[in-house]
Amino acid sequence: MTDSKTTPMNGAESLVTTLLANGVNVCFTNPGTSEMHFVAALDHIPGMRSILALQEGVATGAADGYYRMTGKPASTLLHLGPGLANGLSNLHNAKKAGSGVVNIIGEHASTHIELDAPLTSDIEGIARPVSHWVHTSKSVATVGADAARAVQSAMTAPGQIASLILPSDTAWNEGGVAHGAIDLPAPAPFDESQLEAAVSALDGPETLLLLGGTALTEANLEIAGRIAAKTGCALLSEWSNARLERGAGRVFIGRVPYPIDIALKVLEPFKQIVLIGARAPIGFFAYPNKPAILTREGAEITTLAAAGADLGGALTALCAAAGATDTDPAHVVTAAQPERPTGRINLDNLAALIARAIPEDGIIVDESVTSGRAFSPATKGAPRHTWLNNCGGSIGYGMPAAIGAAVACPDRKVMCMTGDGSAMYTVQSLWTMAREKLDITVLIFANRSYQILRGELTNVGVQNAGPRAMDMLSLERPTLDWVQMSHSMGVPAVRVSECEELEAALQDGLESGGPNLIEIVL
Known about the structure:
Belongs to the TPP enzyme family. The chain is an alpha/beta fold.
């Protein structure tokens, strides 16, 4: 770290100044009384964009999406333990995605904690399961240095969750000292001792190069394509990817399927697997009489680089060692567009309509769960775009992550695809989209149920589920009216059920330059 600045200020001012000095200039916020001095500091310290969320899960999910598109953390501002608890679900998703987030969590004044006021809680205990780094500032004099350490932790590859707890008296007391820019940690080196084994493993069609994390950038996928062309190995990514570059002119990579039976069939041929930024494939859940490990029995797995390592360096070294540096990459996609479908919308023609609508350089935030399983092959020849998945499996990620992506990339169009059940977890996102005038087109797949759980009943061995069981998976009685909800929060919306209607709504929405919602009745 560099030397600290010596300008006297209160603790909140030293915190804001330190965050700005280290490139953290966006705060997704839902403040309360204990955070008012931070709020006040924003009035007279220029440079921090503060974006209000009406629920903390929106704030934490937006910070996740922001990091994925910028590679630098945003901060959140959360009110005490209950406010942090409201944001835990999307912090879990951010942690699994390898996203860097700096949480600023207000706490009671140190003299007030012992009184056990109604909002008193074990904030460190709440934060720890979803954080890599947790710290409470004990003195106004250390707030700036603590903030710098939080940023440094958040920037540790591939990205970490840092939670800084700020008692209100350390925020309002004078004597704060801002800290200057820190030295950011470099990624860990890849495991060079495994390079020879990795080269030997990738020899023919019964071998697989499995990628995740930053191995899925356009440049790294091109290197992987060269390796595949030279060695004959297959390429796959993990089922859920924080960020995947796709589209015409890029190397296409399929994903390990989510449904366990399909995943087992896809992975069965591979006797040898090399991992770069990915974990060995496992099932999302345990199922009766089905394996949790998805690779074939006896498969040899070589880990060349874990998620926090230098994945580009690992791919470059593997490419050179395989003699593939001058080889043209395999699996480069040519531009292709599905035929224009007509009639009632179903899952097959929905994929075609979305593929036709994806804009050049668009960002697709995917929380489509059951509705979206056909999207990958249908959209691979679309214009170049970025695809973001839910990496933690906790629903309610899609619309908040779209906010973060739109704030990070105001020059790019964002398309958010989510089911009606998932979207209800963070429906407050629509209000923030309207308030910030974000260029986001939200597609709500309204199948009026938690459709994925209908399939999971069968997967776990439940046969002939009765009406009470099915009723718990239904979103009817009453039916959700997404057009009405969206309008109430300031976002224009339409409802469609025919292909021609959806095509027109997508064109209008993407051209509007602001937030809009399309409820797609399935």
